[in-house]
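Design review, sub-item: ligand-bound model
Attendees: FS, YL, KQ
YL presented the inputs for the tryptophan complex:
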Amino acid sequence: MTTRILTGITTTGTPHLGNYAGAIRPAIVASRDPQADSFYFLADYHALIKCDDPARIQRSRLEIAATWLACGLDAQRTTFYRQSDIPEITELTWLLTCVTAKGLLNRAHAYKAAVDKNLEGGEDPDTGVTMGLFSYPVLMAADILMFNANKVPVGRDQIQHVEMARDIGQRFNHLFGRGRELFTLPEAVIEAEVATLPGLDGRKMSKSYDNTIPLFGSSRQLKDAIARIVTDSREPGEPKDPDGSHLFTLYQAFATPEQLDEFRADLLAGLAWGEAKQRLLQLLENELGEARERYQTLIARPFDLEDILLAGAAKARRIATPFLGELREAVGLRSFRTEAHSQTAGGKKKAVKTARFVSFREPDGSFRFRFLAADGEELLLSRPFDDPKAVGRISQQLIALGADALELRADEGAQFSLWLDGECMADSPTYADPDALEAAMLRLREAISGLAD
Ligand code: TRP
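KQ shared the predicted structure:
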């Protein structure tokens, strides 16, 4: 059994070292597991919620796509696409919106934080809050449920959103699944081992703190950023405290255990901070140098990137398009052509329509039935009965008896009748000639035998 793993990357900004260690590297490693069926996508619809600068949106999509591929994501093995290339996702978002309680979304952390901030500032609670921000979790639920993901690797701030996707999926299953699980309920996975990387100043590396180390900047930019890492004022030769130094934590994220032991011992022995930064630079160059070259090649070839992403979208849509068709069907957005059949088949999926007994009441109060072939052709009209239950009993008897044992009597080659226990039960329409009558009897036997299985 393979596990479907899915995660989205919001396309605002340029990936930094923290994104690499915290998300990109572990995701790529996980995608190489033969048991994993990985879906990674650029959450560019989500990016629109946070950013109204088209140039930035576009640049970021390009950079993030190139970053993942440069870092070794295999677009053949995995399904790698842009959210905005899958129109089924927005359509599903609406289906889900219609079953999502507003109260659920009121509780979303990101929305609540925006409201709290407004209230603190004495503003209207909804100042600056778009419907995009409010409905963010529904769009995210559509991303996840569309592909029936089992596991969703995310940061801690996103756990609530995955839980909401579960809630919404469960509600949809309950309303429309007829006992079937239309959606797989996803689980959030938090990588225990992935420490959040500290930034230059020791706080979590994040664009909002302006303390990041660029992932694929030039060697020069990397060097300059490392030079800005804040250290204490201990002089060269003075012992340093590795565990109190975020430079050491950064080193740890990329070093082998042996390299790390050596670094620790050297710091304790008084390694100068300048020297220590030089070692970190070397370590990062070794880890990222080749990927940086691949990145630069990819960025310079946007046409190729476009091709890769469109192929990924086509692969994703081979799943999304038919699945959305099922979901539309489930909620009642069906072709009128399928209407008749879904009513007779009790809404269950059947490849072919079946023949059927249709009973009705005559003006004089008696009951009759017609027996119709799958295509609606009338094959029999019963004699009248006083008891309304007779109709059901007779149809069951006929089915139980089986097609071959039906007693059919033809008269004068124009009409035949159906007999049961020595009694005439029903008559056929009249036919033009004996051949047509023969053929109609055959169709009747076929229709009855079709009901038996
Ligand atoms: N909201 C996620 C984030 O900001 C990105 C995202 C969008 C996502 N859709 C997703 C993550 C679906 C996992 C699954 O990090």
